[in-house]
Every structure is written in structure tokens, then in C-alpha cells.
What does this fold into?
Amino acid sequence: QLQFVESGGGLVQPGGSLRLSCAASGFTLDDYTIGWFRQAPGKEREGVSCISAGVDTTYYEDSVKGRFTISRDNAKNTVYLQMNSLKPEDTAVYYCAADLLSGAPDAIPHVMCALYSGSWGQGTQVTVSS
It folds into this structure.
């Protein structure tokens, strides 16, 4: 069973930074496409950024492009989301997820972020407020 522990959330002022971590257990990340998702109060969960297995192609939702960076450290079985220039609208619970996907490497991260519908962990709260 795939299990994740998300961490790194907190309260930060607008313009600040946070780095979220997603530690996997029960499996190795190497072969999985990984995604970060978020759900703000009263809104549907959305894909923020996803990274493919192997070639590490990436996808970013438009509102986070240039501010967020997804990366993976397979040796630590962990995926990160570096979030810079945070805005109040980034406030949400952030979740990570993994799936085995095949197809064109450039398309896979977008597919993950758009269509993933599997299980979720407990998430980590990010609050951007002054």
C-alpha cells in the first residue's frame, strides 16, 4: 500500500517561502509519477505540480509557474515542493500522491495532475497571511 507523510507546511507571510516534503513508505518512488495537489476551503482539489518517473519531466499549474519547483530525491524516497513568492491564494491543504503511468514523458505529468483520483494522505496545511 502506498503511503506518504507530507510535512513542511505552516504559516508564512506573503512573499515568503516554504519547502514541502513528501516521504514515501512501503514502496520506492523511482518508477512512479508523483504529484502535489492542494485543496483550499470551499474549492475542489487541484493539481499543482507533477513530475514523471525516470526522465523527471514536470508540469506546473499556471498560477504557480515560476514560483514553485518540484523535485525528487529517489535515494531518500522523498519528493519536495519548493514554494517561493507565496500569495494568500496559495493557502490550502497540500497533498502528495503517486501513480504508475505510461505514455509520452512530456504528457505524463499533466495527466497526473489533471486526472489522478486515487487515495490521499493527511496533507499539510499552508497558510499565507500577514
The two ends are 39 Å apart (CA to CA).
